[in-house]
Amino acid sequence: MVVRTFQLQDYMEVSTLLENNLSAVFLEKTITVFAKQLYWDSDLIVVEQKNNRIIGVIIGNIRDQQGLLYRITVEGNDQNSEIERALVDSLVRRFQKLKARSISILLDNDTLQKPLFLSLGYTEADFITQ
Question: Cα(15)–Cα(57) distance, rounded to whole angstroms?
């Protein structure tokens, strides 16, 4: 598996991954954030590739020197903490290079993501709800 920066040629595959793995409510919000982040800084979108196929994506942002983990999605058959941890770790390293003072998880009322981040060692204090 390869964790790498999003490339423009990944757009359709990442869009399909999001469509196949998110509910309609979260999909609409995520596609909007995804498009904005592509415009601002595509280096804060990280994908995981397996057998030349994208199986996971994480979208982040930086606001006022605070790194924000927004959405992580992994293909249903490939969901496991190793893949999710690799995506999160890669994005966190990018935040650190950009001198983010802190890192938080922006949940936008997504209770499905909360247990994942708790299992990765984050605490309640790390969550921000929109």
Answer: 10
Q: How far is CA 33 from CA 1, 39, 40, 79, 112, in A?
A: 26, 10, 10, 22, 18
Helix then strand then coil, % of the chain, to nearest 5:
50, 30, 20
Q: What is the pLDDT of residues 82-123, one digit of tens each?
A: 899 999 999 999 999 999 999 999 887 656 688 888 988 999
In this prediction the pTM is 0.91
Q: 44, 62 in Cβ contact below 8 A?
A: yes
The answer to whether 71 and 32 are in contact (CB under 8 A) is no
- Exposure string (b/e) for 24-46, b if CB count within 10 Å is 16 or more? eebbebbeebbeebbeeebebbb
Looking at residue 1, its amino acid is M
30 torsion bin: left (phi>0), alpha (psi -120 to 50), beta (else): alpha
Q: What is the DSSP code (8-state) at residue 121?
A: T
